[in-house]
Specification:
This protein is α+β, with helices and mostly antiparallel strands and about 110 residues long. The chain has helices at about 30-45, 75-80, 85-95, and strands at about 1-5, 10-15, 15-25, 50-60, 65-70, 95-105.
Length: about 110
């Protein structure tokens, strides 16, 4: 997906951005409780951020990943850098093993 912006000189095409996080849960973490915290955080906070398009959570064994798609890199980085601490995020983070966290930003080059 791309965002097309009309300017005085023509059009600028900007690719969407995936804000990617992978992590493991703390030992003994309840998966249903974790998913409930993730659902609330996404529905009540993340989905309301500027440029938000969609979000998905995936798991492979004990490694979890979330993919949040934003309209622009600016939107994704503003979200990542400016996220205000809140009870929803704190609840979600309480399940994570922070030593396992990896964060990346990917520019979407194709969508099928």
């Amino acid at each position: 997906m791309c965002v097309t912006i009309k300017t005085e000189r023509g059009y600028i095409v900007m690719s969407n951005v995936v804000f990617f996080n992978s992590y493991k849960l703390k030992k003994g973490a309840s998966i249903p409780d974790f998913m409930e915290a993730a659902d609330k955080l996404n529905k009540e906070y993340i989905s309301k951020q500027k440029g938000f398009i969609s979000s998905k959570i995936a798991v492979d064994g004990d490694t979890w990943a979330d993919f949040t798609i934003f309209e622009t890199m600016e939107d994704a980085k503003a979200f990542a850098e400016g996220s205000d601490p809140n009870g929803l995020a704190e609840k979600f983070y309480s399940f994570l093993n922070f030593n396992s966290c990896v964060t990346r930003f990917y520019t979407v080059e194709g969508s099928y």
